[in-house]
Design brief:
The protein has 318 residues and is α/β, with parallel strands linked by helices. The chain has a single domain, classed as TIM Barrel, CATH 3.20.20.220. It is built from eleven helices and eleven strands. A nine-stranded parallel β-sheet has the order 9-8-7-6-5-2-1-11-10, sandwiched between helices. Strands 3-4 form a two-stranded antiparallel ribbon.
Length: 318
């Protein structure tokens, strides 16, 4: 079933969903199941699985020279989605990214997903590679998530890259996209960022999942701003609790989000790592209670391989 159908059937009740990372290459499904097993009692209708682009490493050769080699450290998104659906009987939402994929690669992944009856996707540009100064698209790939949305929507109308394909099967992908309550760090301002989001919705996106935030007012203001320019799709808040003191610096640096002064004070006052974790959990619980009271369609948790923390939060909310 489509993600948006779940929202419609909920009749205003707030759903819960979780997002997981594929294990590092060489790992197995046990890591995924160990994360999700403790969380399935909360009855998430869908689970997101991230996609990670290739990275460059430098391998030393016997000659003494270093060879630049591309590797994908976390493969398996499509297979993981199929396994999740088989084990739990819930829908899986694979993330699709522009980075590292040609248009042909993207089409082939979408064909595989369609064969597997996976009809929800989250369309993202993805991050730049670690040693690149900016995002670099593949040759004959997409530079922007907007173009990825357009390709998915083309397949929903039966249009494939090969113009010789006649009567191509129409897919039924429900398309999610990212939203940024504090704007994407590459956007010059929030108004520009909102126009990009509107363009993705106009191109076929069915719902929005936000970047993590720690001040609910940022989310409420973002929703109001979206509605004011005609974006009327569901906007799902993405949530991640602070669990380590160093995250007060790393999360703003990596995700370009603001940490409220009260949260910083609570974490700084903690005497040990467990008190830090509990301070972050309590802050997230209060966020979730307020968001749920406001009738958000879903609370979407970035699990980051820490089911115990997410479970403690979910137990207080659902």
């Amino acid at each position: 079933m489509k993600v948006t159908d779940y929202f419609s059937k909920a009749n205003g009740n707030t759903l819960v969903s979780f997002e997981v990372l594929p294990p590092l290459k060489g790992g197995g499904m046990k890591a995924i199941f160990d994360t999700l097993d403790p969380l399935m009692e909360f009855k998430p209708p869908f689970i997101d699985v991230t996609y990670h682009r290739e990275e460059f490493i430098y391998k030393k050769r016997p000659s003494g020279y270093y060879e630049k080699t591309a590797i994908r450290k976390r493969p398996g998104t499509v297979g993981i989605c199929a396994s999740i659906m088989h084990r739990y009987g819930v829908d899986a939402v694979p993330h699709l990214i522009c980075g590292g994929f040609t248009k042909e690669d993207t089409e082939n992944v979408l064909i595989d997903l369609n064969f597997l009856n996976i009809n929800n996707v989250l369309a993202l540009r993805g991050d730049a590679r670690k040693f690149d100064g900016k995002f670099i698209a593949e040759e004959n790939g997409h530079k922007y998530a907007l173009d990825l949305v357009r390709q998915i929507e083309d397949m929903n109308t039966g249009k494939y890259l090969d113009d010789n394909i006649e009567n191509g099967e129409k897919t039924e992908f429900c398309i999610g996209v990212a939203g940024y309550p504090e704007k994407h760090f590459e956007s010059p301002n929030i108004d520009f960022d909102l126009q990009i989001t509107k363009a993705k919705v106009d191109a076929g996106a069915d719902y929005i999942v936000t970047q993590m935030f720690f001040d609910n007012q940022k989310y409420f203001d973002y929703v109001d701003a979206c509605r004011s320019i005609g974006i009327d799709v569901p906007i799902v808040p993405g949530l991640k609790p602070v669990t380590k003191k160093y995250q007060l610096n790393s999360l703003p640096r990596l995700f370009h989000v603001n940490m409220p002064a009260e949260l910083v004070k609570a974490v700084e006052k903690a005497k040990d790592s467990e008190q830090v974790r509990q301070a972050g959990i309590e802050w997230c619980i209060q966020q979730c209670k307020e968001l749920k009271a406001k009738g958000v369609p879903c609370l979407h948790y970035y699990t980051m391989g820490d089911p115990a923390t997410i479970r403690q939060i979910a137990e207080a909310i659902f």
